[in-house]
Amino acid sequence: MGAMPTWTIAPEPFDSPVAAALWRAYYTEVSDRWYLLHEGRRTDPGELEREIAAHSGGELAPPTGRLLVGRYGGEPAGTAGVRLRADGRAELTRVFVYEGMRGRGGAALLVHAAEDAARALGAERIVLDTRHDLVEARALYARLGYQETGAHNAATYADHWFAKRLR
C-alpha cells in the first residue's frame, strides 16, 4: 500500500503560471459566489478578466510580501499570501484551496505558513478581511485563533475583519 499524499508549502513568484492559475480559480469562485447570491448570475467574463489583470499580486513579492503555494501529492492545490502593511501589521490574503482538495487540512497549513512568513517579515499582528457569505473562511479563521475586530480597511466587499497576535 502506497503512502498517502502529503502537503508541501513553499514560496512561489506571484506571477508564475501556477500562481496565475490559482488566482484565477480563487477570484472566479469568490466573484461568482457574490454575484450568484446578490444578482442571480455568474461573473461577467469581461469583468473577470479586467479584475484579474488589475490585481496581479505584485504586493505579495519580496521583500514585503510572500505568496505561498500548497501542493498536495506534488500538485498545486492551494495558496495563501501575506503582505506587510505600512502600519507594521501583516495582511493575510488569497487563502484558497481547489474545491477537490478541500477537507484535507491544506487551508490550515497554508494559514500557518503565512503566519510564519508574516513573523519573518517582522509583523507582530496579522489581519484579514472576508465576506459574510464565505462562511467556510470565517469558520477556519475562528478555529485558528483569529478574533473578529472592527474594520481595518475600506475594501468594497469586506464585511468581516479578523486579527491575530503573532508574538
From TrEMBL:
Pfam families: Acetyltransf_1 (PF00583). Keywords: Acyltransferase, Transferase. It comes from Streptomyces resistomycificus. It comes from the Bacteria. Residues 21-167 form the N-acetyltransferase domain. The keyword Transferase applies. This is Acetyltransferase. Transmembrane segments: none annotated. The keyword Acetylation does not apply. One of its GO terms (molecular function) is acyltransferase activity, transferring groups other than amino-acyl groups.
